Amino acid sequence: MSKLVICEKPSVGQSISKVLGATQRFDGYLEGGGYVVSWCVGHLVELAQPEAYDEKYAKWRKEDLPILPDRWQYRVSGSTKKQFSILKDLMNRNDVSTIVNACDAGREGELIFRLVYHQCKCSKPIERLWISSMEDSAIREGFATLKPGTEYDSLYEAALCRERADWIVGINATRLFSCLYRQTLNVGRVMTPTLGMTVDREAAIAAFVPEPFYTVRLLADGCEAASERFKDKAAAVALRDACKKEMQSRVKNVERKEKQEKAPALYDLTSLQRDANRLLGFTAQQTLDYTQSLYEKKLCTYPRTDSRYLTDDMAGMLPELVERTAAAFGISENLSVNVGQVTDSKKVSDHHAIIPTKELQNCNFAELPKGEFAVLQLIAARLLCAIGEPYRYAETTLELECAGQVFTAKGKTVLQEGWKATQKFFFEDKSKEAAALPELAKGTVLPLTSVDMKEGKTTPPKHFTEDLLLQAMETASVDEFPDEAERKGIGTPATRAATIEKLVQKGFLERKGSGKVKSLIPTDKGKALITVTPEQIQSPSMTADWEEKLVQIEKGLYPAEDFMQEISGMMETMVNTYEVVKGADTLMSNVKVIGNCPHCGAEVVEREKGWFCANRECRFVLWKDNAYFQKIGKRMTAQIAEKLVRDGRVRLKDCKSQKTGKTYNASLLLSTEADGRAKFTMEFDKDKGGKSK
Fold first, then answer.
1. What is the pLDDT of residue 590?
2. Which of 138, 97, 139, 108 is nearest to 44 (CA)?
3. Helices (H), 213-362
4. How far apart are CA 9 and CA 104, in angstroms?
5. 24 to each of 20, 27, 34, 135, 422, how far by Cα in Å?
6. Looking at the whole model, is its pTM more than 0.85?
7. For the range 670-675, what are the long-range contacts, defined as Cβ-Cβ under 8 Å and sequence gap of 24 or more?
8. Are 595 and 642 in contact (CB under 8 A)?
9. Left if phi > 0, otherwise alpha if psi is -120 to 50, otherwise beta: which for 568?
């Protein structure tokens, strides 16, 4: 008898097959050594669309809301039907006795596997592979300690709740607001509160009024001391003039304290994404993609983790891993390995922190894509810093007295570089540290070299970068629940990057800035959406509370039915009580009108996927991803769409024939079918011998 091993991706399946000795290749799977190894390709099975429950839902109507399925329906994704059929046949093979779930060890991996398993109506026993590294040794150990699939039933329940809650909120809220405001307004359980935070931040920046302040500065014996801030310029000027008359100061107090900065914790996914954005300018999604690729290449451990520690039983392998990592990056000196700083099983959830693997020593870094190498370097540097000695320094605070006022200067003397020496090996240190102050005794009189006054202004909050937005998502409800032991965030480390990308793709956020690190700025469309959505949809604290309940469902501490009833009840109340925001027509007026519909005469407006007739009964649309234009090697642009709607024709150059590959010039004519659908005809140049068709 054989065990069927189902992985999440083909690349993972190939790595596992090699370890298990399943080397015979077949269409969609490998076999050998008592194992059959196959794989999913993303989500093979997904929730059905509303029209699968009732044909009337094919049209968006407020009166049909809320849509709350009694019995959930799923469908096989059209693009992956072949692989689904292969898995179904393998599950039904008589010689397959057990199914091993080897999908990613997390909530989504559990969901991907279980949906396929149930869609295939399989009832064979499940075993679970749960590993944090794709190293051969980790795979062998994982198969030696397979767990019964039933131990992960609660994880599957949480995954189902997350998926179904997102469907209920997304389908109902999107249709509700789109119908009421006559344009597509995508709403999401996590997406909308994330957008709300950016809108609130921009509103705070816009409302901020900078206030001037003034400080008087003294230069004496090579050190610069500053007064307190003055709001009143006249008071600062008076102090400056008084100090200029005296031109000497007295040392009122000298205080020296030894301080230290502990080594930073290891990376979880969010902290890695934040640093990669701040230091390298990578988006959160880019960092996740690079880290996932490194994981599949066996160069780092599982990326989708929210833990920043290793388990206690990993302590024994750390000295060798540190030595190999240091050698791989050219660090020759012996590093301190303070194991206790990075190991704590109580602080590890499903997966430990992200660290490099021993395979690092066999990697030719020159063959890695630049992005992957940059992220791998971050992960390696963090490991070597995290096990290091503290950074120790002496901070001196000097108080000078002049004209009856106290002026303060601070200096720093490094006592031990500690972990910062390792960090400087990898990255240029651009931070400015206070210089050491001269040794002065209390009561010493110092002549002043110069006295001046400087004007400054208070600064507004910073625009969100992905670094700062990820931090805000991770700690979304800290301000409202400051005394809670566990922080509540919105989204998970695995999903936050996708949430940000979706907001950008849907046109609610845009990346702006000339440097490598971009700001995330809400568009007019994004601001309009937040203005019209009710508090419960855009509230980070409510969404964070839902995320916390999903974690409790994973642990078997909160009933899944209660969670789903809460989501359904909230959506039902919203549909029945929501009122259109006054003045919304003006608010939504940023929608661009490109002309009048050639079929019914109504306005044609630009939306996310194309230019649509505002009359919902009319089927006229010019799709941005236009199949006809793809056939002739062209792209539907805003300028072309506007000219077609206005003039009914447009001149196109360098069209490409699919049959011959040759290019030609022609005029494209627009007309409509009986139901309003766009119809294109081509009028060729007569000197080419062509005819209209």
1. 60
2. 108
3. 233-246, 269-275, 284-296, 318-328
4. 9
5. 11, 10, 12, 21, 46
6. no
7. 670/598, 670/644, 670/645, 671/598, 672/598, 672/599, 672/620, 675/619
8. yes
9. alpha
Give one DSSP letter per residue of 494-508, joined into a string. Answer: TTHHHHHHHHHHTTS
Task: Write down the pLDDT at residue 480.
Answer: 44
Q: What percent of the chain has pLDDT over 90?
A: 71
Pairing mode, if any, of strands 509-512 and 223-226? unpaired
pLDDT at position 592, please?
A: 73
Q: Say if residues 547 and 490 touch (Cβ distance below 8 Å).
A: yes
Of 677, 662, 673, 676, nearest to 626 (Cα)? 677
Cβ proximity of 154 and 554 under 8 Å: yes
pLDDT at residue 585, rounded to an integer: 64
Residue (of 158, 186, 182) closest to 172 by Cα position: 186
Are 532 and 470 in contact by the 8 Å Cβ rule? The answer is no
Residue tagged active-site, from 156, 302, 391, 558: 302
214: which 2 tokens? 């003034």
Phi/psi at 462 (5° precision)? -80, 145
Q: How far is CA 436 from the centre of its chain?
A: 41
- Using CA atoms, how far apart are residues 575 and 557, in angstroms rounded to an integer? 30
Helix (H) or strand (E) holding 525: helix 524-532
- C-alpha–C-alpha distance, residues 18 and 30, integer Å: 10
- Distance CA(494)–CA(490), nearest Å, equals 11
Catalytic annotation present for 302: yes
Residue 637 to residue 614: CA distance in whole angstroms: 19
What DSSP character marks residue 438? P
Alpha-carbon distance of 602 to 594, in angstroms, equals: 11
CB neighbours of residue 216 within 10 Å: 27
What integer pLDDT is reported at residue 497 of this predicted model? 94
- Strand, helix or coil for residue 41: coil
Q: Dihedral, CA atoms, 635, 640, 645, 648, nearest 10 degrees?
A: -100
Rounded mean pLDDT, 206-226: 94
Mean pLDDT of 150-154: 96
User: How many CA atoms, within 13 angstroms, populate the side-chain half-sphere of residue 580?
Assistant: 14
Rounded Cα gap, residues 622 and 644, in angstroms: 9
Q: What does residue 37 show for φ and ψ, rounded to 5 degrees?
A: -115, 120
Of the chain, the end-to-end C-alpha distance in Å amounts to 63
- Residue 692: pLDDT band by 50, 70, 90 thresholds? very low
Instruction: Indicate the Cα dihedral angle 571, 574, 580, 585, nearest 10°.
Output: -20
CA angle 672–678–684, rounded 5-degree value: 90
Q: At what angle do helices 81-91 and 107-119 cross, to 10 degrees?
A: 70
Model confidence pLDDT, tens digit, residues 534-550: 988 888 888 889 989 99
What is the C-alpha R_g of the chain?
31
Structure tokens at 404: 């009856």
Cβ–Cβ under 8 Å, residues 664 and 684: yes
Q: What is the pLDDT of residues 550-565, one digit of tens each?
A: 999 999 999 999 999 9
DSSP line for 114-175: HHHHHHTT--S-EEE---S--SHHHHHHHHHT-EEGGGGHHHHHHHHHHHHHHHHHHHHHHH
